[in-house]
Each structure stands twice: as C-alpha cells, then as structure tokens.
Amino acid sequence: MPRLVRRTAPLEQAQTALRDVRTGRFERTMSALTAAGAAVTAGEIYLSHDGASFGNKMMWWPIVVVPAAIPAGIASVFSRRAAHTVLPLASAAIVANGLQGTYLHWRGISQRPGGITRYNIEAGPPAFAPLLASLVGGMGLLAAVLRREGRPPQGDRADGA
C-alpha cells in the first residue's frame, strides 16, 4: 500500500513563511535572494559596462566582486557556517564596491562638459546604479544577522513568540 504523504496547503505554507519573517527566521531565503540578485545584477553591470567598452579599468571590479555572492549565497542556504562567514565577507565587498562605483559615476558625470547638470545626470553614467548593486550586498549582510528557518534553535519557542 502506498505511503500517504501529508502535503501542506499553500495557505499554511504562506503562514509559515510569514511567521518566519516576523520572527526573524529568514536567513536561508534571504541568502537565496542574495545569490539570485547577484546573478541578475552582475549580468546587468556587465552589459552596461560592455556598452561603455570598459573605458575605465575600474569597470571590471564589479564584474569580479558581485558574482562572488552567488556561490556564497547558495552555500549559505545549506550551511549556517557559510551564512555567518563567507556571505558577510562577499556582501561587504559588494557594498564597498557599490559605494566606490557611486563615487566614480558621479565623478564621471561631473567631468562631462557643463559639470553636474540635469542633462549630464540623465546622459552620463547612471548616477545611482552602483547603490542598487550595494543593495544586493545589504541583503547578504541582513541574511547573516537573521536566524535560520526550520527547526528553532535551543531556547527558542516553536510558536515564534
């Protein structure tokens, strides 16, 4: 006779996910989102910088730094240790690189004829794009401080209170 497997209803799964978020047990999900966000962001950065012919050698830095969060995020989904060691390092590097990129983009805008004008902000390097990349790093840093979903650690109540 086949074994019956209890499947949870989508509503019950949604309630569990919401309880995990509310109680700070969101580490695995945020780690996975960091990996996915890093993949999309790295691709977008590559296409943008390739369109500018990698005119400045510094344009290669985010192509190297941002993808580091992909394996770190994936490892953090499966390993609590990775979530507290490797992921924060990769994420901090992304945040630092995003801040550096913001400075370089604004410097590039200011060096255009006319300096910082509305036209140069719209036509020059994207002024706030590096900060968006920093958000991926911020997600990884957030994942490192959250508690892990699943079985509650010793001393935590199972009901999330």
Q: Could you explain the architecture of this structure?
A:
The C terminus is likely disordered. Helix 2 packs antiparallel against helix 4, helix 2 packs antiparallel against helix 8 and helix 4 runs antiparallel to helix 6. The chain contains eight helices and no strands. The protein has one domain. It is elongated and about 60 Å long. With 161 residues, it is mostly helical.
Q: What is the structure about, briefly put?
A:
The protein is an all-alpha fold.
Task: From the structure above, extract its key features.
161 residues; mainly alpha; 8 helices; disordered C terminus
Describe how the helices and strands are arranged.
Elements: H1 10-22, H2 27-51, H3 61-65, H4 69-78, H5 80-84, H6 86-110, H7 118-123, H8 129-145
Helix pairs in contact: 2-4, 2-8, 4-6, 6-8
The beta-strand count equals 0
Into which percent range does the helicity of residues fall? 55-70%
Instruction: Please indicate the percent range of residues in DSSP E strands (runs of 2 or more).
Output: under 5%
Q: Radius of gyration, Cα only, in angstroms?
A: 20 Å
The geometry reads as elongated
- How far apart, in Å, are the first and last alpha carbons? 40 Å
Uncertain parts: 153-161
Number of helices: 8
Would you tell me the structural class of the helices and strands?
Answer: mainly alpha
Biggest sheet layout: none
Mean pLDDT across all amino acids: 88
Number of domains: 1
Give me the strand/helix succession. Answer: HHHHHHHH
Transmembrane segments: 29-47, 59-79, 86-106, 126-146
Keywords: Membrane, Transmembrane, Transmembrane helix
